[in-house]
User: Fold Site-2 protease family protein from Paractinoplanes ovalisporus.
Amino acid sequence: MLYWLGVVAFALAILISVSLHELGHMLTAKGFGMKVSRYFVGFGPTIFSFQKGETEYGLKAIPLGGFCKIVGMTPQDDDVAPEDQPRAMWRYPVWKRTIVMSAGSITHFMLAAVAAYFAAISLGLPNTAYPQTDADTLAEKPVITITECTWINLPTTQQECVPGQNGAIAGPAYAAGLRDGDLITRVGDTPITTYGQLTEAIRALPAGAVPVEYQRNGATATANVDLVAAQRAPITDSEGATTTVSVAGVGWDQRSVPTMIEYGPVEAVGATADYGWFLVERTFEAMKRIPDKIPALWNSITGSERDPETPISVVGASRLGGEAIENGVPELFLNIFISLNVFIGIFNLLPLLPLDGGHIAISWYERVRSWLYARFRKPDPGRVDYYKLMPVTYAVILIGGAFTLLTVTADIINPITIFK
Assistant:
């Protein structure tokens, strides 16, 4: 029951945020004097509507977004009444049109900021300094976690590690007295300051005893660790070809860096800004990886294991929100909501029609082109013909629709799960 309550709550939260997106367009358009003829939540058949002033407001049957109809968004709009021509959107200065078209994305950013601030002072925000990749982990301090059992050859299937069985031995570091949370400062003659240096130093040595200097509770001590030869992949490529190297049975202790941090009301302002910028950077990185992830997304539909880094749809995000509530992790629910709003806000600003960013890009293209023609004493070329851009627009819609269908299908058939 909690799972489905979480799913419905998350889907409703996204519907509200998208409705507020359209509200942002409407309020800024009305504020500048443009005519807004319709504002609806949802698509499809109309459930109800009412007229207030010059705008019709209503609710439609399919709760997948909403729309706001601003009169005369392009010069080619042929449904503008003669008396509304002076208020057609395309006649307004480019800076006003930019504000109106970007208001939807700004609304998403504001929602994300408010939710992040609330999370910062109540549940905590994810620590942006926490390692996000293997390379980040290698750059951390060499605070270790100890394995009591170590594989000589890593098994291809999941199984219990029992010393003396299936090529497993007692962990060398554990046998030498090292314990979770110890900070390694030297391996043999090599000083250690990062976990990457620790791993490289151990792998560079021959199998056999080596003195390992460490700190525990502020005191420095030395343990003689009997390194063993084992098959391991490169430390920067876990799926690379394995080679024989020395191992000690240690790993990076994730507890040495907190994953979540709670802030006071004043500190939360800076933390919210820092986390917001972190999400912006991560969003652009994720967008760049989308083309490479499409084959994995398709394979997840045809029977392969779902890659946790493949894109998800609102359906997948709602399912993750349901998991978060079911497992008593409301901070994860909020974090997914924040991340999705940042993504939607950025995505809508991409300079592609029919996205808001496409309209903004054309407005500024027209402005710059008119300025250049005026500088060269040439007649103003006028407005861009949107009809000539329709093939590109249809291509974007087709690709976007196919991608959405692919992600929704994967999220239904083979969803990403966090709690297994």
Remarks:
- The radius of gyration is 28 Å.
- Residues 58 and 157 are 56 Å apart (CA to CA).
